[in-house]
């Protein structure tokens, strides 16, 4: 999955519950009529972070491209070796058509499940996701102690990402997920990556995590790099459907 309310091509009306996002049929129906939607701000808000972390020569895998323009923005910034995947065949077909119509023939788009990535080990310099993993958490229950089923899906995704990254590759996760909830998952002992993050947004935080494979070393120094910001997100500041994720977090914390 991948909010750009002002875009004339965006005609989304959010589902009644965030749990609807777990239904693959929902996405097929949505993508059939919706041309473009951006989750968690558009590219301009975190472009500086992309440029400081991704080389133009990098091979990039995008998880859950949906109908986002993320891959197009990366392409415009000179990153042309891009592979996009999505679980929805409708999203894949429409993305392929859109990219070809714009002349972005180098970008590859294919149907695949991020829980079972169909790529060889050490295939990509960068794996990036923007709001895609957040879907896995909509039925997590207590965010401090998520359900085993949720943890299993998240770890399957992270296992696959770690496997397909090259030895010095990086995983970028753009999300609502606060560090105190993401850290136990990202920092599972089986992974060799370090973890750091930046924030962006006006008056509240979205998180831009950077996990560098093979760089896990001094945990204490790494943790000292960032202090977890307080959770200060207000529904009237959130764009489009982002509030559904925010509402879910608020409900779970009560």
From TrEMBL:
- Originating organism: Arabidopsis arenosa
The residues covered by the Methyltransferase domain are: 56-177
Keywords of the record, alphabetical order, are:
Methyltransferase, Phosphoprotein, S-adenosyl-L-methionine, Transferase
What GO molecular-function term can you cite, just one? methyltransferase activity
Job of this protein: Protein-lysine methyltransferase that efficiently catalyzes three successive methylations on 'Lys-36' in eukaryotic translation elongation factor 1 alpha (EEF1A1 or EEF1A2).
Its domain of life reads: Eukaryota
The record's annotation in Pfam families points to: Methyltransf_31 (PF13847)
Which InterPro entries does the protein's record reference?
Lys/N-term_MeTrsfase_sf (IPR051419), Methyltranfer_dom (IPR025714), SAM-dependent_MTases_sf (IPR029063)
Which family, according to the similarity comment? Belongs to the methyltransferase superfamily.
Biological process GO annotation list?
methylation
Name of protein:
EEF1A lysine methyltransferase 4
Q: Which SUPFAM superfamilies match?
A: S-adenosyl-L-methionine-dependent methyltransferases (SSF53335)
Q: Which reaction does it catalyse?
A: N(6),N(6)-dimethyl-L-lysyl-[protein] + S-adenosyl-L-methionine = N(6),N(6),N(6)-trimethyl-L-lysyl-[protein] + S-adenosyl-L-homocysteine + H(+)
């Amino acid at each position: 999955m991948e909010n750009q309310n002002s875009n004339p091509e965006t005609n989304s009306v959010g589902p009644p519950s965030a749990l609807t996002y777990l239904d693959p049929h929902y996405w097929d129906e949505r993508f059939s009529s919706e041309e473009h939607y951006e989750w968690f701000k558009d590219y301009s808000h975190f472009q500086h972070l992309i440029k400081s972390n991704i080389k133009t020569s990098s091979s990039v895998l995008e998880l859950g491209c949906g109908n986002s323009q993320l891959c197009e923005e990366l392409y415009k910034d000179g990153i042309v070796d891009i592979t996009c995947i999505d679980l929805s065949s409708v999203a894949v077909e429409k993305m392929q058509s859109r990219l070809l119509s714009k002349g972005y023939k180098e970008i590859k788009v294919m149907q695949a499940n991020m829980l079972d990535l169909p790529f060889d080990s050490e295939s990509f310099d960068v794996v990036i996701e923007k709001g895609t993993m957040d879907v896995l958490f909509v039925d997590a229950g207590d965010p401090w102690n998520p359900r085993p089923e949720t943890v299993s899906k998240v770890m399957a995704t992270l296992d696959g990402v770690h496997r397909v990254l090259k030895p010095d590759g990086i995983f970028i996760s753009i999300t609502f997920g606060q560090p105190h909830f993401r850290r136990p998952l990202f920092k599972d002992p089986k992974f060799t990556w370090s973890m750091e993050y930046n924030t962006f947004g006006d008056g509240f935080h979205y998180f831009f995590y950077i996990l560098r494979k093979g760089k896990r070393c001094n945990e204490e120094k790494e943790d000292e790099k960032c202090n977890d910001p307080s959770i200060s997100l207000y529904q009237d500041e959130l764009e489009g459907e982002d509030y559904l994720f925010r509402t879910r977090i608020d409900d779970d914390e009560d």
